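Quick log. Single chain, no ligands specified.
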Amino acid sequence: MAKMTTSLVLGLALVATAGCAKKRPPELPPTPAEAPVVTDGGESSDTLAGRLNEQFKREVTSDTVNFALDQYDIDSQARSILDSQAAWLSSHPEARVTLEGHADERGTREYNLGLGDRRANAAKNYLAARGVSPTRITTISYGKERPLALGSDEGSWAQNRRAVTIVIN
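-> predicted structure:
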């Protein structure tokens, strides 16, 4: 009799718990990516950022700085590229950028994430030294996760060791 009472109590508790489950709303609100922000001119912020990024790519020497193997020093060629980026950013004070740090496929994931971070921050520090406010610059490291070239040779690795500047608004 005690087993039957225990089973009955457990069964009722299970039914009561199932009845308390949260009901799914009939229609979910859109995710933030589905509802772009519209600016005063009627243009979405994504469209404006894309247009500014295209303008940035046309008007600067390059949006990409390349690095030597296991290095994150800013050499003379990188300085020239970053100087043109700093000049563009000075003439567009409303623009904010993200610096993406990348590495080639060699090395561990953790090492390459750290190296990508050092490369992005080296470029950020250079731009900041040229008068661009660091609050306008964010950095992210992709390590070896987003290669530009897919080969496993020195030419491909050289293209993948980079920091890329992206205008985000």
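Strands lie at 64-66, 97-102, 137-143, 162-167.
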